[in-house]
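Assess the record.
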Amino acid sequence: MPESETTPVSTTSDPTPGGPDVGAPGSVTPNAPGVFGACGGFGPNPVDPPLASCPPPLPGLEEPSPRNLAYSLTLPAGLASPTVAREVAELVLDVHEMERLIDPALVVVRELVAYASRFSGDGADVYLFLRQRADTLRVTVRDTHAAHPHPHLAALCAERRRSALERTPDVVAAYRGTWGFRSAQCPGAGTWTWATLVHTPRSWAA
């Protein structure tokens, strides 16, 4: 996802959350890349299918696994949201057989959602995205706090963001990941913050 006024904390070859799928507040839904625009809003509508295929065929009923883990969750900015997000993430990771990353991921999910709530306006929605790609779990949140146009204010805000995450940097480092934040593309669309955790296969001593 392109961005403006980028304020990265760390670098990664793929820092973009990608294809956010935003449902109704409090809902959790699988991601649908290509339907939503760069700012989390609806993009161009897909071509309407012919009436003969309405309703469309059932989707493939593939068993949950790490390779098809892709979910989004919309939450209100509030005190309960970090706990709700943690409980939902625990269920998703368990169902998708991600046991080795559950404990660190739940620390990151809870802290990122609390952080996004703090940087969002009263009554605003915050968005959580969970996606597993190539042995890397990406946890992404979007808050409503847009980047400051004045460089001095932007620097102060970036420092506040860094200090607001007490545990995430250490957890990410322990799991060979990266984290950072960047403004969303459209004015007033807020800020993306991501953290990645690399799934390391268990090694057995001889």
